[in-house]
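A quick aside before the break. I want you to see a complete sequence-to-structure record at least once, exactly as it would be stored in a machine-readable document. Don't worry about memorizing anything.
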Amino acid sequence: SQAERRYVSILRRSDGNAVIAGFKRFPTPFSEYWPFGNRFPLLYRLTPRMNRIEPGLQNPVEVGNTQLGVYVCYDGMLVESARDLVADGAGLLINPSSDQWSRDAHTQPYQAFAMTRLRAIENRRFLIRATPNGPSTIVDPAGRVVAGLHVGEEGILLAGVVPLEVGTPLPWLRDVVRWGALLLLALILVLPARLARVVLQARPLHVS
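That is the input. The structure line, written in tokens, reads:
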């Protein structure tokens, strides 16, 4: 059987020791794995160059007195990683990423950044996003870029960041809205048919 492969982020401490900061929790579908590929292994046999990345666990990593929430690349486009890391005590979010899968250097990298900066706003945390081929930025809890490098630029970003502990319901409200919308859609689809059936059953029968 094929050995499991995961993307991992490594943090080097000031004393020179390296520690695992976090795994990628949500591999990118159709690029790093086939959805339902475990159920239909023929998909992988037809595409032997598919990476077949497995999801990994994520927990805050302690550096000094600060809990860091590290999530990798595509994880930043989804709500769950940042939300759960903050719920587990992360006071600062870090998102190492890569935009090299796209040949577009003008639109796609900035679309990805626009999505990932929402995690700072939702969780009221500073966000550090580092990428070798996209915008590298430091974002404050209001979503403002306090330091950044554009695509193709190289350098070191310096900015003051503050680990925070304030909580916010915004990431959880997303689930409420999502499931509420699905429930509303189900009611819209089901209720008219049931009401029509009740009306037909209640209509008196006229015999001529």
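Two observations worth writing down. The mean pLDDT is 86. Residues 8-24+56-167 form a domain with the Nitrilase/N-carbamoyl-D-aminoacid amidohydrolase fold (CATH 3.60.110.10). We'll return to this after the break.
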